[in-house]
Amino acid sequence: MRKKIISVVCFLLAVFVSHGIAADSAPFFFLQLSDPQFGFMDNNKSISAETEAMNKAVTAINQLKPPFVVITGDFVNNSKSKEQIAAYKSMIAQIDSSVKVYMIPGNHDIGKVSRASIDNYKKNYGETHFSFRYGDCAFIGIDSNIIKEEDKEREEVQFKWLEQELQKTKDARFKFVFTHCSVFLKRMDEPVNYSNFSLPMREKYVRLFQKYGVNAIFAGHLHNNAYGKVGNMEMITIGPVGKVLGTGYQGMNLVKVYPDRFISEFIALNQFPKEVVMSDPATKTTESMSRVRFKSIRNLVMAGYQG
To answer: Mean per-residue pLDDT for 224-234?
Structure first.
């Protein structure tokens, strides 16, 4: 029986090879969410509305089971509120253990940048940045607070780390960067405001990202959606899970990654699909990517076709 299973697996691998499909370049999807910001809706008096919204987000995550999710900051409204922090962490703990969770801080999670505020963040949530690979794609998250406040020493340390991580991505098919505050919202030359980087910082980071071929930057902070592009690099700012501003609505960002492209779509929490379908116009085929897991291969039937 074991030999038969091994034979079938080898046959399936042969199918992939014969069709020119590398395992690292197989289509996949991930979710980005931002700004649950517990306490914002009721001015820190209650967290019931944010709890309800975050519960919808977690339910959708557990239904779809992406390989990972990225949360781009502002988990709470008051960085010193034990109630808000505990509520957020309780919701994150309910995400299926098979789904990895990566987080970077928002301005409300740290407050005024200082040794104490950063240490407090790390104590509650972990590191302020991340870098990892999934398949042949690279994912890097940075702390935008030290950039926005232009904390020279910390910003330079992070910038050096960021460039070192980007240098490792030369062989990556796609390179994605995550930040809480947008580098810019719609245009590189737009006026400086609460929701983007200063012009010198904007130019500094865009120059670095373009040097290493970053494909997209994902952000939150605006509590609304915005889109910009410089050269071939996209700047994607998404709305919140929590309180909306302007014309925004509560939702999460679904990012589908194909061998030759990626598609980003911000979907309302109450309209999230129960499965993710990856469509390939080149072959006119579709495939459900919602993951079903089995504890063992006992009693399973595996088959290949058109080898």
So the answer is: 97
Confidence of residue 279 (pLDDT cuts 50, 70, 90): confident
pLDDT digits over 117-137, tens only? 999 999 999 999 999 999 999
Residue 266 CA to residue 154 CA, distance in Å, equals 32
Residue 12 belongs to some domain of the structure: no
Residue the block writes with tokens 């370049």: 25
Beta strands in the chain (DSSP E): 28-33, 68-71, 100-103, 130-134, 137-141, 175-178, 216-219, 226-230, 233-237, 251-257, 262-268, 277-280, 285-288
Those residues with Cβ within 8 angstroms of residue 139's Cβ, 6 or more apart along the chain or in another chain: 70, 102, 130, 131, 132, 133, 176, 178
Domain count, the chain: 1
Q: Is residue 17 part of a domain?
A: no
Report yes or no on 133 lying in a domain: yes
Residue 252 lies in a domain: yes
Domain extent at residue 61:
29-288
CATH number at residue 280: 3.60.21.10
Residues 6+ apart with CB under 8 A from 124: 85, 89
Record the pTM. Answer: 0.85
CB 148 within 8 A of CB 197: yes
What dihedral angle (degrees, nearest 10) is formed by the CA atoms of 251, 62, 129, 38? 50
Strands in 135-280 per DSSP E: 137-141, 175-178, 216-219, 226-230, 233-237, 251-257, 262-268, 277-280
